[in-house]
Predict the 3D structure of the following.
Amino acid sequence: MWDYSEKVMDHYRNPRNVGTIEDADAIGSAGSLTCGDQLKIYLKIDENNIVTDAKFQTFGCGSAVASSSILTEMIIGKTIDEVRKITNKDIADELGGLPPEKMHCSVMGYEALEDALKNYKSEGYVDLDEINSAKAPEKMICTCFQVTENVIWDAIKQNGLKTVEEVTNYTKAGGACGKCKNSIQDIIDTYYNKQKNIEKLTPTQWILKVNNVIETQISPELQKDGGDIELVDIKNKTIYVRLKGRCSGCKNSTMTLKNFAQKILQDSLGSDITVVEVE
Amino acid sequence: MTNKLIYLDNNATTKVDEKVLEAMLPYFKEEYANPSSMYDFSKPSSNAIKEARGVIKDFVNAQSEKEIIFTSCGSESANTAIRGVLNYNKNKKHIITTKVEHPCVLNVYKQLEKQGYRVDYIGVNANGELDLEELSSAIDEDTALVSVMWANNETGVINPIDKVSEIIKSKNKDTKLYVDAVQVAGKIPIDVQANGIDLLGISGHKFHAPKGVGALYVNSKTMITPLIIGGHQERGKRAGTENVPYIVGMAKAAQLAQDNLQYEMTEVKRLRDKLEAGIINNIYNARLNTGVANRVPNTTNIGFEYIEGELILLHLSDIGICASSGSACTSGSLEPSHVLRAMNVPFTAIHGSVRWSLSRFTTEDEIDYVIEKLPSIIEKVTSISPYQKELQQLKELRTKH
């Protein structure tokens, strides 16, 4: 039995604003029958860009209905600009929280809302996000549940997700065949690397960067002791090096690698760097 | 919300029969001796085990008491049987099972696949009936084990075990047959000899014994390597001091189940059929997922189209009715039931599938209550579905017929 909050139970028992709006100004949907949940949301927006009415229809579990129901309450009376700021986390918070495995229901609410607003054009309104995203078609990551890279990216950003499992709980991506788990991990890595202001590099740029750190920061220090270090190969985050001069065969060479070279490389390029010595 | 409790989830677990509890209590309080001890005080407990073994032997119609091993649950019975046979026949690397086995069996095979075993998963038709031809053609020289559940936990569909064992014997007489009988114990007669079964597992809590006790039948011609190593208990096939009160409880439950078998197959079946008809005839978007398949008398699996199962269960729970669903949302796994998917139940119905499982304690009043209350719950859930157009079409189609 899920540990649903009182508010979740209240909303699935007595859902607010169920139905459709005949002359809706914006309609959005998320999910599908195959995936086991679908949400449709209808908005009425007045000339001042205020949402005057909202209705929903949901095929889904208790938390999906509760997320949809509370979302309609949250947006009625708000301006479009205010509505745009609502995230899935706001929906879940408003419900007094959702079980981790059910967070994807709040994401579905957010997605449907986003979909509705994407379809809504008020006069003179320019959607910068749309212009930006129009450059590249959305990349499908999870084909089982039809989850795009953007949805995963938003979920990571809005909820501070750090693991693939969390992404699955929030977006369903990776929850069926599991083939996209590596891609999800890549998105997580990319997001947090961007956070660290490390730009996405081509393989050549990456080699140059590693070599630069070795030549400018590590090599000079070893040379002081009559030794040296040479870059041999790079496989992703594993860096193969050869110790030269006095360093090679030195009893402390492992110490040199682990404590000094690896630390400097990690500080400059990320904590997931491993340094391996080759003969 | 309500004090009422209508328990229609007996394939998940059952309530302990009063008489079972009564039979168990002395072995907690007075007769607590270790059955292996060498004093007179241990005689009542060792005799109780001996007697219980005789009861279970009769319950499955084994040839000898020596063929019965007491375990802690259905999963342990399955693991002991499967790993036991494979570890004893290390040169054989092929296993055959079905796509609709219980996870406690299926996940063992998934793991064995990673360890280098070749596993064939035999499919079922739209009614959930096993494809015997596919099974037959899958058996080869290397097949160590065929593992087929007697009845499915979600649909109640019965597999023709006699035919399965005939097929096996005609293709490879060294291949062993393990039957997961957890869902038939107490519902239909079990006869391991007449059905040519080599190994068979049961679980006490599915027939009104407490959770935490099960049994495994291993016929005298079948060798297994034990899973739990330690003392000499269970003739070296399962170490660990015997769980005397629970074993006594399971034996009592087996006796009661045997006594009630006729009631189960007539009266429980009548109530199940009444419930089924009451739902199918009164709710236009209800669909019997098993069609005309032969089923255990207590189970029915009904899909409610264009709505979702967890929400149905939550509303049922509010009025005191307990059932379960094959919907993705209830499992936490995001994927709907592997059983219903193997049957190709349409996506319109799979997420809204509800399993109702009765017991000999289910009353007519309870069934009437469900039949009376369910339509308004389904109506409430259906009214918020985004598939109103499809539902309308379905309604017109069904009311025409």
About this structure: DSSP finds eleven helices and eight strands in chain A.
